[in-house]
Amino acid sequence: MPIETSAETSVETSASAPVSPGLAPVEPEAESLGARYERDGYLAPFRVLEADEAEGHWQRMQALREERPEDAAAAFSFNPHYLLPWLYDLARHPKILDKVERVLGPDILVWSTGFFSKKPHDPSYVSWHQDSTYWGLEPPDIVSAWVAFTPSRRANGCMRVVPGTHALGQIEHVDGFADGNLLSRGQEVQVDVDEADAVDLELEPGEFSLHHVRIVHGSNPNPTDVPRIGFVVRYIATHCRQIGGRTPAALVRGEDRYGHFDPLPCPREEFDPEARAVYDAATPVLRSILFRGAAQGPRKPS
User: Fold this and answer.
1) Does some domain include residue 154?
2) Ramachandran region of residue 41, left (φ > 0), alpha (ψ -120 to 50) or beta?
3) For the purposes of burial, counting CB atoms within 10 Å of the CB of 87, is it exposed (0-12), middle (13-18) or buried (19 or more)?
4) How far is the CA of 116 from the CAs of 29, 126, 231, 268, 273, in angstroms?
5) How far apart are the first and last CA of the chain?
6) Pairwise CA distance, residues 48 & 28, whole Å
7) What is the pTM of this model?
8) Total structural domains in the chain?
9) 71 part of a folded domain
10) What CATH code is carried by the domain that includes residue 44?
């Protein structure tokens, strides 16, 4: 069946709030960030790093891949903030948290992080899906920040969202495990998505977007010469619970009065032995939650 959204989810523009092509303005005086997020399910763009800082992060990734290829492959495939202090610090950057607080409230945990990377001329893509499908978290008071380390544009496969679809609740998905699908299970919503309804979240290096855990989103391949590298941080309100096992989470703002997650401190250095022990203990628990009921397990890191 097709996705149906109300006219209220249409993108509006304002001459007083210039934005990147295809994006709605995020801070018009007449409407708060919270109201826009509640209506559309996403906000963008915001700046967290200068372009040269974003480039430095990308170069640091490249250097680690050359110097410690096995460690880097494992870290960049799953929760790199457990092992790399500079990514832990980015996940708790005040410029991101200030915006996250507007939609989640003052008490915030980082549940997980990851990379969505497409090399030049990369056929990889992300099918239309909702993040909430297999995460085992409730309630869905969860928002993801997508931070661009390189240009993320329509031409090289930027993230695309369907405004308002977060209000539809949980939609049925089917696992595909298709070659080239960057999702862990290749999951895809079992509804027809009208491409004309999608909004391209184009970002320059150092900019980020926010999206609701239940908004339908995806991305296309990268046929260009420009790599598309995005660092994703999943933030949850402290009252959220993990279903299916106890996992770590990093308190990055406010206080945790619930204790549903084990504390996750910042690693003292890259691949710190104590941090690695936490990573090695938590990873199989998290993967068992993400792959519960799946026909096959996670892909080998590359």
Assistant:
1) yes
2) left
3) buried
4) 33, 9, 7, 25, 26
5) 36
6) 19
7) 0.86
8) 1
9) yes
10) 2.60.120.620
